[in-house]
Write a structure and sequence with these properties.
Elements: E1 5-8, H1 16-26, E2 33-38, H2 43-54, E3 57-64, E4 67-73
Parallel strand pairs: 1-2
Antiparallel strand pairs: 2-4, 3-4
Amino acid sequence: MEADQTLDAKGLQCPMPLVKAQKAIKKMKSGEILKIVTNDSGSYSDIPAWAKTTGNKLIERKEEEGMYIFWIQKS
């Protein structure tokens, strides 16, 4: 899936992937897509919950080879 920006949050522990995602998405335009890649297992539930509470859209979430990958569309 295409993304307008990719956030590499590998090696960061909770809550840092979420903090970095918040900063990144603030700089983006409505409709743009942020791809987040992390190996923090807590992010698997934290990032979708954050997207919902901030009004952004979780387009896709997957796990592959120990990495959690999210595509979030800015509202």
